[in-house]
Amino acid sequence: MNEISVPRPNSLDAYWMPFSDNKYFKGDTSRMIARAEGMSYYTPEGREILDGTAGLWCCNAGHGRVEIKEAIQKQAAILDYAPTFQLGHPIAFEAASRIAEMTPEGMDRVFFTNSGSESADTALKIALAYHKARGESSRVRLIGRERGYHGVGFGGMSVGGIGANRKQFGALLPYVDHLPHTHGLKENLFAKGEPPAGAHLADVLENLVALHGAETIAAVMVEPVAGSTGVLVPPAGYLKRLRELCDKHGILLIFDEVITGFGRLGTNFGAERLGVVPDIMTMAKGLTNAAVPMGAVAVKNGVYDTVVNGVAGGIEFFHGYTYSGHPLAAAAAIATMQLHQSEDLPGRARAIEPYWQDAMHSMRDAPNVIDIRDIGLIGGIELAPRPGKPGARAMDVFRRCFDAGVLVRVTGDIVALSPPLIVEKPHVDRIVGTLTDAIRAEAA
After folding, report:
1. Would you give the distance in Å from CA 429 to the centre of its chain?
2. 35 vs 73, 154, 294, 329, 401, CA distance in Å?
3. Is the pLDDT of residue 6 over 70?
4. For residue 91, what is the DSSP state?
5. Most exposed residue of 20, 94, 168, 297, measured as fewest CB within 10 angstroms of its CB?
6. What are the domain boundaries of the chain?
7. pTM recorded for the entire structure
8. Residue 82 and residue 67: Cα distance in Å, rounded?
9. Sequence-separated (6 or more) residues with CB below 8 Å from residue 39
10. pLDDT exceeding 70 applies to what percent of the chain?
């Protein structure tokens, strides 16, 4: 492909890049992305990079979708912005209604945010407000899980359990505790789909109840599938057991569906695939196909009714964002959800999942592969770390893959894959072939 006309940076100095090795990147600018279309990104020089990660788990309908672009353009010409504090605009209500059509039955109330991080903090505040409205103000404790990721706000970081994301910022929120993660059980190595062992780990919640008292615990927050930490699939029965224990002790269960929502597991949300309905559900990423930043929190109707009817009049929930329900984001969300329905993107994911699963596990015998995990259109390939250099092997694999024309994602020494849901078998073959070659090249 010939060089294309795209913007080029005049300087790399001003932009402080997020979650990045700034010194390395600014000394080697070969990994720059300039445009995207369909299943691929393109560099400023026009070189194609097959997207094996849907951006950051978010471009589920593929890139450059005309339907979404035109919806944003049309809305910008009609209403560029309107506040939603004590005011409203029609398209925000329509977007909320569309989401409510996709969420589990009885979870029909939607609060808009601008990201998964904001959704996580919003969900935690809703949980606290719910218990206060019920006269249980003592329920202030929040339970997360080791290796969980719930964004970068102080609430999400506090219930999150990825050490590197926490250590730089001090003590974070008080009254937080964590369940153990479900990773590393030898019975689950190379399991396909939900692994067989580990449901008993949910019973640790009973220990936390015994330690702190159920009357102090507001909510438990987990990802149905822990993505950012390296694709930890819940053991069979684990989430159902967690649901039972939360019900037993009057604790709200929050699912962080930022990654698992909008078709990633072959269903609208992970709750549907895994057969467990939470009280509160966060979402973002695939909500707008990442064309405009947007997040949302869906709650059971009873949670909404309790908070809203808990005061006689006036503002019921003192929370919100300048851009909550932004018109352009709402337009992008509606167009995205229409695509999900018209193209049956969850159905496409289900149809290709067996092929994807076989392709993931075909890498089992590659050098230094110590585990492979998959569910829906997610895959995690765990590599043995180099002695004294944790994360180095996977990062070198990431760079080799990009240079060979495929984008993968790494966390520690785990390679994570999550392609757009429009992926086809030749794309899967190319992703797996390129990744296998890179793993072999980094065998030493």
Report:
1. 25
2. 18, 33, 21, 20, 18
3. no
4. H
5. 168
6. 22-61+344-443, 67-342
7. 0.96
8. 23
9. 50, 51, 62, 63, 419, 420, 422, 423, 427
10. 98
Q: Which two tokens stand for residue 277?
A: 């309905």
Q: Copy the structure tokens of residue 350.
A: 């289900």
The strand order across the sheet containing 295-299 reads: 109-113, 295-299, 280-283, 252-256, 217-222, 141-145, 176-179
Structure tokens at 113: 């945010």
Work out the angle between the directed axes of helices 301-308 and 116-133 (0-180°, nearest 10). Answer: 60
Q: Are 247 and 274 in contact (CB under 8 A)?
A: no
| Topology adopted by domain 22-61+344-443 | Aspartate Aminotransferase, domain 1 (3.90.1150)
Tokens linked to 278: 């939470």
- Tell me which residue of 388, 378, 440, 437 sits closest to 409, measured CA to CA: 378
How distant, in Å, are the alpha carbons of 354, 371, 378, 407, 417 from that of 428?
Answer: 12, 19, 12, 12, 10
* Contact yes or no for 281/295 (Cβ under 8 A): no
Question: Burial code of 383-401, b = ≥16 C-beta within 10 A, e = fewer?
Answer: bebbeeeebebbbbbbbbb
Whose CA is closest to 65, among 330, 344, 422?
422
pLDDT at 285 over 90: yes
Which amino acid, one-letter code, is at 368?
A: N
Which architecture characterizes domain 67-342 according to CATH?
Answer: 3-Layer(aba) Sandwich (3.40)
